[in-house]
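Write out a record, focusing on structure:
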Amino acid sequence: MRLRGRVTPGSAEDSAADFLGRSVTARAESLLARQSQYLTDAAARDRELAGALALIAKEPSLVDSAWTLHTLAPDAVEFWQAAESRVHTRLRYERAGDGWDRFPLWS
């Protein structure tokens, strides 16, 4: 699926509510700010995660200052379904007023 449109950052209040709505472990991982970095020492990760979990236990309303909720207002949405024959199904929807127009695409 591919979505295209305008992306806007949410307010600080909405971002905080989104962050606090996540699991405790997900919030702790976010506080570590290491997503997608190479993991070279699992024991160090576990120690740091335990520290972040303890911090959240001590301050349950703690919010990662870098966390920003973003909202996408799509103008176009494309769906792609693979077929073994390689004749894939592709559909594109484009915003048209209050609704959507549907267009089949070449695979």
